[in-house]
Amino acid sequence: MAYQCVVSEITDFVNSMIELFYKMSRSFRKNSIIGITTCESEKQAKKIANRRFRRITNIRIQIRKFDFPLIREISNIWNFGKDGKQYLKKIDEKEMRK
Question: Which of 67, 78, 89 is nearest to 37 (CA)?
Answer without folding.
Answer: 78
